[in-house]
Amino acid sequence: MEFCDLHRQYLEYQKEIDDAIASVIKTTAFINGPDVPALEKELAEYSGAPYTLACSSGSDAISIALMALDIQAGDEIICPAFTFIATATMVSIVGAVPVFVDVDPVTFNLDPEKIEAKISEKTKGIIVVSLYGQCADFDAINLVAKKYGLWVIEDGAQSFGGTYKGKRSCSLTDIATTSFFPAKPLGCYGDGGAIFTTDLKIAEKIKMLRNHGQEKRYHHKMIGVNGRMDTIQAAILRVKLAHLDNEIMERNRVADLYTKALNGIVDTPYVLEHNHSVWAQYTIRVAERDKLREKLAEYNIPTAVHYPMPLPSQEAFKHLGQGTDFPISNLLSETVMSLPMHPFLTTDEIEFIASKIKESLHV
Ligand SMILES: Cc1ncc(COP(=O)(O)O)c(C=O)c1O
Known about the structure:
The protein is of the alpha/beta class. It has eleven helices and 14 strands.
């Protein structure tokens, strides 16, 4: 059994994907080929964000977004204490300081009520992660941002395709980013990402920043990076985007079956009524997490921990001296574990996993 079975997915769309890759090879337009702007148009239509720029990864998407917002050395950016490290390391990469805020105990997303206490004169913006596929509370967060004149970036690396109050993830803030890492709900066959914005000027700047600050060939208006998406990845993503809604439906089927089987046995995930999750992860909470993982491994059931350490406790951020007073993030890092999750899991497989969890916990 695979944690995220990309092979099964490939077999499902094999001819379409093989044809898409072959067509790029035939044209040899490996960089900035026509599939890149075509994908950008489709992503914009899908997400509802008017301007969409494809780029080299979800991490680069965040750093390019920060460059587009003119982040300066020493600026402070609010980040959740419980997320994948790239959310905050990209802040450091551009010379700014991530200021960590604890997360909500129900959704595990940034807690809007804890933001204000961490705002200082140096604060410029807030990066919000929509963790495991469920959007954060953007109405509340955007309200705090407005009060203090801050911008908001949604790190939608795990939530592309999800909705918040009927609007799609990546269309809910000034700028949003996503990742097309292979195991993401919409993944390519290597690294890839995208940046979304409602602001034409910012979009034009991002376009230059991701291509060496170049306005036209060999004329560089600003300091930029090589953050382009490969044409082959764009061609693959176009195939997979057409199947995304169906895959999200299937991920919801899998999540519902897990919840039905595990309710009352472990702490199952909770999706708020106004959210529709894409279930990037199905993450439960168990007190004896490590023991349960070992037991499941004996039955070849793969599991993962997203994430075993809150960001302020990571060695990479120790120098910031922000302490360990992040009680929810600390608790989550000791108790969360993710179960196999992909659209092609069968009812039998889900029932097998659930039965082995019950057996291991002696219930
Ligand atoms: C929340 C979050 N932010 C950023 C990233 C970085 O994306 P990438 O791996 O495409 O650089 C990831 C990917 O795992 C992520 O989950």
